[in-house]
Design goal:
It contains three helices and 18 strands. 12% of the residues lie in helices and 58% in strands. Strand 1 and strand 2 form a beta hairpin. It is mainly beta. The chain has one domain. It has an 18-stranded antiparallel beta sheet that branches.
């Protein structure tokens, strides 16, 4: 990242303007990425200029005001912006398909003054993975995301490094039914190893049950280019606060502490295939669950008031 861009994000205005500036920077970055992806997607699919294959996504979610609590202490009426940009190249070689890329994700919270929670959680990570085929019916994916998982661009240190990874397999039972089994590993998490199972079942010509984490959904193909769906998004990631976060909030044990942030969103939306390689997604719904868990310090804030949300996304393959 260039020094100018780092300075742009790291400058901290007064407390009253911080969230407004944070939102503006997020919108600028997301829409700049969206412009690039749309411009690329509307070009000819095969023009000889870009011989590599890959996938990309740019997502922006706004969550309305909600509440969390710890014992008798409440943090009320704060909103959230979740932003994510991801790009992965997928070159083929003898053993299968490599997955090489990068991802940036940022959770920004409009917290009231004095709240003992970080107003930013973000990650910068590389993506290194492999898709391979063991047989005609068994596909395997292994992927790791080494990177920095922290509470802001002003706190980029190597002791924020983490390397979560996932390993999963797909069994093709029939052309209409696939079974999925996987495991997620994160040594910083309270439960480092979490297994998961899933099912992908084409129920009919227009119906698809895609019950696979982290975005299980039931999908209906309205037209060739438009699909409707209802489902959920399940998120869990670990980050570290900065070295003085606890002292600044009267809780020294939260200095450089590990926090696991979890949330569940339930909603409905649509996928619109703009071009052969670009899809636009819009979604609205309700967030019934949110949790900040400093489990090593035995400090946990759980959701006591849900909130509506809306999200937009550009994604696709090339």
């Amino acid at each position: 990242m260039s020094p100018k861009l780092l300075l742009f994000f790291a400058v901290r205005p007064g407390a009253g303007e911080r969230m407004k500036m944070l939102r503006l920077r997020t919108y600028v970055l997301i829409f700049a990425a969206a412009f690039f992806f749309v411009r690329t997607g509307l070009c000819e699919e095969s023009n000889g200029f870009w011989p590599l294959s890959g996938e990309f996504s740019a997502d922006l979610t706004y969550v309305g005001e909600g509440d969390v609590a710890r014992g008798g202490k409440h943090v009320n009426n704060f909103d959230e912006i979740d932003s994510e940009i991801r790009a992965v190249l997928t070159p083929r070689f003898k053993l299968g398909v490599l997955r090489l890329g990068a991802q940036w994700e940022r959770f920004s919270f409009g917290l009231p003054n004095g709240a003992a929670l970080p107003n930013t959680l973000q990650s910068f990570s590389t993506i290194i993975g492999l898709d391979t085929q063991l047989s005609d019916s068994i596909l395997i994916r292994a992927e790791t995301q080494p990177g920095l998982y922290n509470s802001g661009l002003g706190h980029l240190f190597w002791d924020d490094f983490n390397m979560p990874f996932v390993i999963g397999g797909t069994y093709i039972f029939s052309p209409n039914v696939q079974l999925i089994l996987g495991v997620s590993v994160d040594v910083e998490r309270k439960y480092p190893v979490i297994p998961a199972v899933g099912l992908r079942w084409k129920l009919g010509p227009q119906w698809l049950l895609d019950a696979v984490l982290p975005t299980p959904r039931l999908q209906y193909e309205l037209t060739r280019n438009v699909s409707l769906y209802a489902g959920a998004t399940i998120t869990e990631a670990t980050f570290r606060t900065d070295d003085e976060f606890g002292d600044s909030h009267g809780m020294p044990r939260l200095n450089h502490a590990v926090v696991t942030y979890s949330e569940i969103r339930t909603g409905a939306g649509f996928d619109w295939k703009i071009s052969p390689i670009v899809t636009f997604t819009g979604e609205v719904g309700y967030q019934p669950y949110r949790d900040f868990d400093f489990y090593r310090a035995e400090v946990r804030y759980h959701q006591v008031g849900g909130a509506p949300y809306g999200s937009i996304s550009l994604h696709g393959t090339f």
